[in-house]
């Protein structure tokens, strides 16, 4: 598949390690946050979401942490696998009527076997 | 397969030309979103339609326009193309306008190259 080719921060990890991808969001009034994964040649895919009234949410091998004080999100991936290699985006939903998800710049995760 | 279909997958054209990108949303989804993904800008929201009506506009240039048809498919029209318009254009859909969770389902994108 073709590469998106974005100039992004990159996180390189070894297979089996835990990965932590960070995201700073911009609007303190944002009430809902989503992590997406974009593999080469594909569109972004939903991974996990969290509402602003929560601090933590767990999925299968993934955990999202929300720190509203410093407007920071993190995505933790346990036992990272080569198939997790992708670009990861956080998106915030800002209030104001249209509730359009606004995406951050993304982080490229490279998992070495 | 996400259920969101975009055509064409790849398109190469010249500056000054006009192209149309097409999107069929996931079955049952009423809301369609267009995003542009370029090297330097990440995913930029362009425009949203809901059940045939424009509902929100983002960083969409005046040279660009879109519409959503009665069968809910959407088209993004890009005219007077410039080199800087080269990008991946994504369509996404969601079931409703905005309530509770607002998870978007994305298509595979249309890669536009302007020479």
Report what the structure shows.
The complex is a heterodimer of chains A (113) and B (115). Chain A is an all-beta fold and 113 residues long. Helices cover 0% and strands 50% of the residues of chain A. Chain A has strands at residues 10-14, 19-24, 32-38, 45-51, 56-58, 62-67, 72-77, 86-93, 101-103, 107-112. In chain A, strands 1, 3, 4, 8, 9 and 10 form a 6-stranded mixed beta sheet that branches. Chain A has a 4-stranded antiparallel beta sheet with strand order 2-7-6-5, with no helix packed on it. The model of chain A is unreliable at 1-5 (pLDDT under 50). Chain B is mainly beta and 115 residues long. Chain B is 0% helix and 52% strand. Chain B contains no helices and 11 strands. Chain B has strands at residues 5-7, 10-13, 19-24, 31-38, 42-50, 53-57, 64-68, 74-78, 87-94, 105-106, 110-114. In chain B, the strands form 2 sheets. In chain B, strands 2, 4, 5, 6, 9, 10 and 11 form a 7-stranded mixed beta sheet that branches. Chain B has a 4-stranded antiparallel beta sheet with strand order 1-3-8-7, with no helix packed on it. In chain B, 38% of the residues are buried. Chains A and B meet through β3, β4 and β9 of A and β4, β5, β9 and β10 of B.
Which features does this protein show?
heterodimer, A: 113 residues, mainly beta, 6-stranded mixed β-sheet, 4-stranded antiparallel β-sheet, 10 strands, B: 115 residues, 7-stranded mixed β-sheet, 52% strand, globular
Rg over alpha carbons of chain B? 13 Å
Largest sheet of chain A: 6 strands, mixed
The largest inter-chain interface, given as chain pair and residues per side, is:
A-B, 27 and 30 residues
Tell me the helix content of chain B. under 10%
Describe this structure in a few short sentences.
The complex is a heterodimer of chains A (113) and B (115). Chain A has 113 residues and is an all-beta fold. Chain A contains no helices and ten strands.
């Amino acid at each position: 598949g073709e590469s998106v080719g974005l100039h992004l921060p990159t996180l390189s990890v070894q297979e089996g390690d835990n990965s932590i991808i960070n995201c700073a969001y911009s609007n303190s009034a944002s009430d809902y946050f989503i992590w997406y994964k974009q593999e080469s040649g594909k569109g972004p895919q939903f991974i996990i979401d969290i509402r602003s009234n929560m601090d933590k949410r767990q999925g299968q091998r993934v955990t999202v942490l929300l720190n509203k004080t410093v407007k920071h999100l993190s995505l933790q991936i346990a036992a990272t696998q080569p198939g997790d290699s992708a670009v990861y985006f956080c998106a915030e939903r800002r209030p104001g009527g249209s509730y359009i998800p606004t995406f951050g710049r993304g982080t490229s995760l490279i998992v070495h076997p | 397969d996400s259920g969101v279909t975009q055509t064409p997958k790849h398109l190469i054209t010249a500056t000054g030309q006009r192209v149309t990108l097409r999107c069929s949303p996931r079955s049952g989804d009423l809301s369609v979103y267009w995003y542009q993904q370029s090297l330097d800008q990440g995913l930029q929201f362009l425009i949203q339609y809901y059940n045939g009506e424009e509902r929100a506009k983002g960083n969409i240039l005046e040279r660009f326009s879109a519409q959503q048809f009665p069968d809910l498919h959407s088209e993004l029209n890009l005219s007077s193309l410039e080199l800087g318009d080269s990008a991946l254009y994504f369509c996404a859909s969601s079931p409703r306008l905005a309530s509770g969770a607002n998870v978007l389902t994305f298509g595979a994108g249309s890669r536009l190259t302007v020479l």
